[in-house]
Amino acid sequence: xxHIVCHxxxxxxxxxxxxxxxxxxxxxxxNTLPGGSFESIKMVSGRVVIKLTLNSDKQKITxxxxxxxxxxxxxxxxxxxxxxxxxxxxALEILKNKKFKTFKISAKRGNKNFPLxxxxxxxxxxxxxxxxxxxxxxxxxxxxxxxxxxxxxxxSYLYCEKIKGPxxxxxxxxxxICVLLSGGIDSPVAAYRIMRRGxxxxxxxxxxxxxxxxxxxxKIKTIVKILEQYQGKSxxxxxxxxxxxxxxxxxxxxxxxxxxxRRFMLKIAGKIAQKEGALALATGDSxxxxxxQTLENISAINEAANIPIFRPLIGMDKEEIIKxxxxxxxxxxxxxxxxxxxSLFIPNHPETKASLKDVKIAEKKLTASKLINAAVKNSxxxx
Length: 383
Ligand code: ATP
Ligand code: MG
Known about the structure:
40% of the residues lie in helices and 21% in strands. By secondary structure, it is α/β, with parallel strands linked by helices. The protein has 2 domains: 3-164, VC0802-like (2-Layer Sandwich); 176-382, Rossmann fold (3-Layer(aba) Sandwich), CATH 3.40.50. The strands form 2 sheets. Strands 1, 2, 3, 4, 5, 6, 7, 8 and 9 form a 9-stranded mixed β-sheet that branches. Strand 11, helix 6 (214-231) and strand 12 form a beta-alpha-beta unit. The longest helix has 20 residues, at 257-276. 39% of the residues are buried. The chain binds adenosine-5'-triphosphate and magnesium ion (MG). Residues 182, 184, 340 line the site of magnesium ion. The site of magnesium ion (MG) has 3 residues, from loops.
C-alpha cells in the first residue's frame, strides 16, 4: 500500500477554476505531509495520487490528511497495471488478508480506454475472488468487505478502506476573513467553519491586559496553534481594548456597555481587515445564546461594521457547537479558565433589546475614532 488516492468533491464542480483549486489542494497536501514521506504527488484523472516513500509514517500521514480541507476521502492503495489479470491478482492479495464472509467489488473506470466497463470489471474480479477464497459470497447491498478498483490514467489503484477527509474547499481559495477570536468555545468553531470553505482566517483577539492576566493571551495563542493545523501558519492580532472599555465605563449608560464593546470590536477589526485585504469578519455568535446575541442586539452591533460579518454558528445549539469543538480539538483549551475582556465592568442586567438610536446617542459622547485608531496602532501581530 505505497500509494494514497485522495478524492475531492466540490472542486470537481468548478469548471473554469478547477486547475486553481487542484493546484492549491496539491500544495496544501505537500505542506502537511511529513518531510521525506513522499516521492511524488500528482493529479491523475480527477484525483490526487501520492506516491509514498518506503517507511513513511502512515499514522502521522493519516492524521494530517484528515485536516486538509478539500479532501472528501482518501485511501492507502495498492497499484496494479491496467490489465484485468493483474487487477484480479492484486484484489486477491488485498482480500486474502481480511476476514469476511460477504464482499463486493466496486470498480470505477476513470480511463475510458480500458477495454472493460465498470460492471464488467466487477464481474471479472468478483468471479476470480470467489474461485480463490473459500466460503464467501457476493453481497451487493451490505457486504462486510468492499474492494475498490479505480482505473485512473495508466494505472489501477485498489483498496478496501476509505478514510473520511474534512470536506470543504482547499485552504487559500476563498480569500481572507478576519475572525474575532475570544477564549470561549464558539469562536474557534466559527473560525474552523470559514476555513473549511477555503477562507484564510486572520485572527483578532481583544484583551484588557494588564487588567486581565497574561495567561489568557497564552490561551489564545494555544487555540491559534490548534487551528493552524488546518490552514498553516496564521496571523494573530492581539488588540489592547482596555482604553476603549474605560472610556465606555466612564461615559456610556451601564446597560449599553456590552453592545458598545462589541461595536468597537467590529470597527477595530474592520480596520485590520482593510489593512490585510480581508473582505469580511466572522464571529462565533449563535442567536439568543447570551444577552449580546439577541436579534435586537446583534442588529444594533452589526450596524457598526462596514464590511460583511459572517456568523457561521448562528443556527447552532450550544451542544452542537461543543461537539464540533471537540472534533476540531479546541474544546479542551477553550474550557480552561479565562479572563475575558468583556467580563470587565459588566452590569448585572445588560440590555437585551438595545435600540440603535440610544446606542448612537451614547457613542457620540465617546472619542471613537481616536480610540479605534489607537487600538489598531497598538495591536501586536503575533505570527
Ligand atoms: P465565544 O465562546 O466565542 O467566546 P460566547 O458565547 O462567549 O462566544 P460572546 O462572549 O458574546 O459569546 O462573544 C460573541 C462573539 O464575539 C465571539 O464568538 C467572538 O467572535 C467575539 N468576541 C467576544 N469577545 C472577544 C474577544 N475578547 N476578542 C475577540 N472576539 C471576541
Ligand atoms: Mg466569550
